[in-house]
Design goal:
about 220 residues, alpha/beta, eight-stranded parallel beta sheet, 8 helices, about 35% helix, about 20% strand, globular
């Protein structure tokens, strides 16, 4: 089943001093989601947005908030990020004691649920729950910082998971994040990804609208 290509600009690469303006620009773009990377300085070596910031900027967006939680002991924070305005909540299997329970909790909050796999994490971590989720996020860099180079080996995961999703007629989007540009976007699409997260490629040269259009149609 062929899915439409979606673009999720990562505001980790936006101008933090003008987030209201940056969000407003995305409202008038062909972007499908606003990707929000949440890092706690423990699961990954960086700190970014907490619930108060997300709550403040959420009111300016007409696009769904795709919130990627890269935080330890994630279960205790699910409700906070839900209330802050997340529409999709994506978690890593290694950040929860019980992935099934965490998925159920996110659904009970009325949110779409995603599971993310780092480059060194096996697809076996997600296979038992793939029919319970809405989105599968494949990291094509090790998370923590923007501007890293794409890891091509992860495309094998994308291909295998895409085939499984198609063969079983599952309604699961495959998102890819890390080092996405025009060239790597083409590779990711060919492997079966349909949601492209892009930061540097979207915000380069202050041509956000044009860059999103190029990624969507490359």
């Amino acid at each position: 089943m062929k899915k439409n290509i979606k673009i999720a600009p990562s505001i980790l690469s936006a101008d933090f001093a003008n987030l209201e303006k940056e969000i407003s620009i995305l409202n008038n773009s062909e972007a499908d989601y606003v990707h929000v990377d949440v890092m706690d300085g423990h699961f990954v070596n960086n700190l970014t947005f907490g619930p108060p910031v997300i709550e403040k900027i959420r009111k300016y967006s007409k696009k769904p908030f795709d919130v990627h939680l890269m935080i330890k002991s994630v279960d205790q924070y699910l409700e906070s990020y839900s209330k802050a305005g997340a529409d999709i909540i994506t978690i890593h299997p290694e950040t929860t004691n019980n992935l099934d329970n965490a998925i159920s909790k996110i659904k009970s909050l009325g949110k779409r649920v995603g599971v993310s796999l780092n480059p060194d994490v096996s697809i076996d971590k997600v296979l038992p729950v793939i029919n319970k989720i809405d989105l599968l996020l494949i990291m094509s860099v090790y998370p923590g910082f923007a501007g890293q180079k794409f890891i091509p080996d992860v495309l094998k995961k994308v291909k295998i998971l895409s085939e499984k999703i198609n063969n079983e007629n599952l309604n699961v989007e495959i998102e890819i994040d890390g080092g996405i540009n025009i060239d790597t976007a083409k590779l990711a699409k060919k492997a079966g990804a349909n949601v492209l997260v892009a930061g540097t490629a979207v915000y380069s040269e202050n041509k956000v609208l044009e860059n999103i259009k190029l990624l969507k149609n490359c």
